[in-house]
């Protein structure tokens, strides 16, 4: 299946009252594992996450159609949120939303308007100046990661979120890396096993030692941590370094905090709970 709405919640159980565990975004693919009374148990193809999604937010396709979908040239939204219009006019009605971080196949392009194809075949229109055109894959740098992360500043925290409508901590870090062409796991506990460990709980000289971190390093935390090794049994939060003592994370909203107590955005709680870090780029 392909997601046919801007963001579809993926629940732990087949109920709207259940806990949201993640999200599937417009145009993303998933395998169907089970169907039950308007719900579909899916496995997201990009990170193998499991959960239940509402069938009316998904479009069923076969493997041949999926291969065709994946082969099409796609564009993304430059704006965080913009409408997909039913015709190339500014006052046209909307058929959906095009979010930063989602990608749809191109149908036509003019100087003023671009049309894109929805998973169910409907055509949506966006202004050409508001989309990112496809380009050749570039080498990812730590600076690219920081630039992407800062675009999300101020977006609200949402448990299970991984879109501009709301992030949880690991959904935020996964999205920042995904938008730079690097796939990392969905959950913080698995992200801590990715890349190279560059500092664990035996570091006693924080925050001075934390000056060694570079943009993009993932920082991990464990509430009331008593860990003697990294990663600990339970990780409760993940953030991304902006180099030195500053880091960006989703907590209440996407924000920047610091390990340096002389800074106004110092976060004493996270300094106390810091347990280690991993470097994925470099």
Describe the structure.
By secondary structure, the chain is mostly beta strands. Helix content is 13%, strand content 36%. The chain contains five helices and 22 strands. The protein has helices at 63-71, 142-150, 169-178, 188-191, 268-273, and strands spanning 2-3, 7-11, 20-25, 30-36, 39-44, 50-54, 58-59, 74-77, 81-85, 94-99, 103-109, 113-117, 123-127, 131-132, 162-163, 166-167, 196-199, 218-221, 237-241, 246-251, 253-258, 274-279. The strands form seven sheets. A six-stranded antiparallel sheet has the order 17-22-18-19-20-21. The chain has a five-stranded antiparallel sheet with strand order 13-12-11-8-14, with no helix packed on it. It has a three-stranded antiparallel sheet with strand order 4-5-6, with no helix packed on it. A hairpin with a 5-residue loop joins β5 and β6 (50-54). α2 packs across α3 (169-178). The chain is globular. The model has no long low-confidence stretch (mean pLDDT 91).
Helix-strand blueprint:
Elements: E1 2-3, E2 7-11, E3 20-25, E4 30-36, E5 39-44, E6 50-54, E7 58-59, H1 63-71, E8 74-77, E9 81-85, E10 94-99, E11 103-109, E12 113-117, E13 123-127, E14 131-132, H2 142-150, E15 162-163, E16 166-167, H3 169-178, H4 188-191, E17 196-199, E18 218-221, E19 237-241, E20 246-251, E21 253-258, H5 268-273, E22 274-279
């Amino acid at each position: 299946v392909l997601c046919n709405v801007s963001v579809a919640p993926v629940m732990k159980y087949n109920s709207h009252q259940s806990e949201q565990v993640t999200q599937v975004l417009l145009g993303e693919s998933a395998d169907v594992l089970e169907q039950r009374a308007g719900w579909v148990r899916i496995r997201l193809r990009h990170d193998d996450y499991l959960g239940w999604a509402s069938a009316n937010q998904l479009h069923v396709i076969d493997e041949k159609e999926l291969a065709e979908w994946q082969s099409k040239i796609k564009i993304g939204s430059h704006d965080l949120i913009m409408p997909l219009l039913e015709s190339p006019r500014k006052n046209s009605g909307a058929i959906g939303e095009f979010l930063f971080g989602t990608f749809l196949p191109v149908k036509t392009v003019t100087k003023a308007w671009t049309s894109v194809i929805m998973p169910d075949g409907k055509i949506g229109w966006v202004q050409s100046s508001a989309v990112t055109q496809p380009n050749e894959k570039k080498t990812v740098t730590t600076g690219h990661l920081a630039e992407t992360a800062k675009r999300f500043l101020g977006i609200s925290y949402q448990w299970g979120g991984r879109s501009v409508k709301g992030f949880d901590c690991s959904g935020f870090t996964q999205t920042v890396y995904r938008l730079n062409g690097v796939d990392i796991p969905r959950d913080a506990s698995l992200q801590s096993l990715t890349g190279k460990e560059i500092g664990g709980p035996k570091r006693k000289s924080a925050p001075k030692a934390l000056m060694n971190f570079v943009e993009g390093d993932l920082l991990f935390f464990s509430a009331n941590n008593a860990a003697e090794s990294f990663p600990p049994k339970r990780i409760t939060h993940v953030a991304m370094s902006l180099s030195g003592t500053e880091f960006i994370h989703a907590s209440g909203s996407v924000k920047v905090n610091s390990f340096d107590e002389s800074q106004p955005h110092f976060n004493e709680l996270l300094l106390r709970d810091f347990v280690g870090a991993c470097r994925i780029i470099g």
